[in-house]
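Customer escalation, tier 2.

The customer says the design service returned an amino acid string that "doesn't look like it belongs to this structure." They asked us to rerun it and document both sides in this ticket. The original structure tokens are below, unchanged.
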């Protein structure tokens, strides 16, 4: 019963602010921006506080390397769930983050879709030709630099079902690096694959946890080879961190 109550509270937050943004989006860009900003700065932290209070669900945002971050950078990470978006918004709450995502997320997902469109995240058309997709990412890379934003890209390109790190694809990452000339921050996250749909939420929410951590900071890679080597090393670092985390109880940081 407590699982259902917690899920009901979460759905209430999603529905209320999702509906507000759906109504505001075609009427007022300014109002939609205010609602989207509140979703990022207000709703996301409240979701994790709610989970902790009612289900003992912990959010662990590790502070190592935070003081060494450059002013602006690209984040690459493994990808487990749609919840990775609010997780990174919460973890980098002092930054203005923007995501590279497939454009199907910009439609029909309460709370998420209007926010992604309104804040001009990078929506890559799923059926676009490679050159068209790269043009979208190139424009995004230039835009985030001008606006002092933090781009976040998931090189796997899709969410894992097992929690293990999948293949990292280099094309989108290389185009983002090339168009922005930013240093690269590798992050690992874990926990999303256990609550990626309603059935798993009802089963695994109690005393679960979400973890996110900065693993390494790289200078801006200058060549294709440097990008590929960086991704290979990042994938290995992330999997090692996941293996270490899964030896810990969900209550231990």
């Amino acid at each position: 019963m407590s699982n259902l109550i917690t899920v009901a509270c979460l759905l209430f937050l999603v529905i209320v602010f999702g509906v507000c943004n759906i109504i505001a989006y075609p009427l007022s860009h300014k109002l939609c921006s205010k609602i989207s900003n509140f979703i990022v700065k207000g709703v996301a932290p409240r979701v994790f506080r709610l989970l902790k209070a009612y289900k003992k669900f912990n959010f662990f945002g590790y502070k190592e390397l935070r003081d060494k971050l450059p002013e602006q950078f690209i984040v690459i990470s493994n990808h487990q769930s749609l919840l990775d978006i609010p997780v990174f918004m919460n973890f980098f709450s002092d930054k203005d983050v923007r995501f590279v995502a497939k454009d199907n997320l910009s439609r029909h997902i309460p709370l998420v879709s209007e926010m992604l469109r309104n804040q001009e995240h990078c929506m890559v058309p799923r059926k676009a030709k490679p050159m068209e997709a790269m043009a979208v990412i190139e424009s995004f890379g230039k835009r985030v630099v001008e606006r002092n934003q933090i781009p976040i890209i998931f090189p796997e390109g899709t969410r894992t079902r097992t929690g293990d790190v999948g293949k990292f694809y280099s094309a989108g990452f290389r185009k983002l690096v090339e168009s922005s000339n930013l240093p690269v921050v590798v992050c690992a996250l874990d926990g999303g694959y256990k609550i990626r749909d309603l059935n798993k939420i009802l089963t695994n929410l109690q005393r679960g946890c979400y973890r996110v951590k900065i693993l390494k900071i790289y200078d801006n890679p200058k060549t294709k080879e440097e990008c590929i080597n960086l991704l290979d090393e990042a994938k290995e670092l992330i999997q090692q961190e996941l293996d270490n985390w899964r030896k810990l109880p969900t209550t231990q940081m």
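Tier 2 assessment: The sequence is consistent with the input. The CA atoms of residues 29 and 135 lie 25 Å apart. The helical segments are 2-27, 29-55, 84-91, 113-118, 130-146, 171-180, 198-204, 224-245. Sent an explanation to the customer and offered a walkthrough call.
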